[in-house]
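Hi U.,

Before I forget, here's the chain from the pilot set. I'm dumping it here mostly so it's searchable later in email.
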Amino acid sequence: MNALIIKHIEIEGPGLVEHCLQHEKIPYRILNLHSHVGLPKLDEFTHIVILGGPMNVYEEDRCPFLREEDLFIKEAIQRGKFVLGICLGAQLIAKALGASVTKSPTKEIGWYNVSLTRIGIIDPLFSQLPKTFSVFQWHEDTFDIPPNAILIATSSLVPYQAFRYGDNAYALQFHIEVTQEMIREWMETYGDEFEELHPSLLSKIKIIADTELQIEPYQKRGMEFLRNFFKTPLKGGMR
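Structure:
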């Protein structure tokens, strides 16, 4: 087993994903596409995690690496690699599978509840989670569900929160990888974006307070989800 983590910007790192890989002693490589590093050969990896970023999937002229990444994701899914997309990563998976990615009806920043669908409750990776649970969000776009994909999680504000494609690709709109330090850093670095949505200082204080309450159980759930993802064997071995 060998994992590839794809970053799109330095500040949005692997967080809990890297912690899980280290804990499970799974070899991995982190690749920062924003540093103009080319994508590796798929033969080297069994599992691929695609992280978030401030760019949009349709900004290929501004971020040319998105074109190469789109082809990489398509091939990875077709070859049966296990692929997990988080936020932008989820939107990139949706686009690679032929679904639309557009502005979300609600720009979500902070802690929000999502609920598992009927299929989500029995999904191999989600079945150990509560039917409704709180997640950390930071996004302005949303995806449609690709043809032949299965909706796993939903919410009243943004209905498409997670989907599974086949047995090997998962897309999560929310940030399962965040640590408390990452949330604080994002709120400082993306301050202008935050203020557009939450002009009141009280909103920032509330998110920090919510994080204090939520982060420990959230990371326990995240670790369980990620352990299950990385322990999923490829059918027929590495392809």
